[in-house]
Write a structure and sequence with these properties.
Largest sheet: 4 strands, antiparallel
Radius of gyration: 17 Å
Strand content: 25-35%
Order of helices and strands: EEHEEHEEEH
Shape: globular
Distance between the termini: 33 Å
Amino acid sequence: MADYFTHFSCLLDVGTPDKAARALALFHDLRAADQDADDPEVAGFDLVRRDAPEGSILWIHDDGNGDVEAVIRFVLRLADDFDLTGLWGFQYALTCSRPRLDAFGGGAHVIDLGARKSIGWTSSQERLAAALNGEDADA
C-alpha cells in the first residue's frame, strides 16, 4: 500500500515581534480547540517563530502530511487580524511512498493579503496535462 504526502515549507513576515507572538498564540489556541473538532482549522501544518524573541517571521511547514487549504485559511485570518498587505505565496510538493502514476507533482498559491483572497494557483500535474494536449503553448 502506498502513502501519499503533501509537503511545504515557507516563511510569512507579520511585521512586528508582537504580531508574531500573537499569531503563535492564536495558532496554539486553535490547535487546542481542534483536538475535539470534526473539521480541524489548523491541522496539517506547524508554525514556529523564526528568530525569536525579536523576529517577526513565522515558519509554516507541513507536520508530516500537509494541508494546503488550512495554511491558506490561517494566513488569510492573520492578514485580517493584523491588517497585512502585499503578495505572499508558497509552493507545495506531492509525493508518494511508492512509485505510482499521477502520485507526484506539486503547485503554488499566490495570496493578496490586503484583498484577503487567493489570486492564483498552479498545479504541475494540470499544467503538464494541458501542455501535452496542446492547450498551453507556454508550458
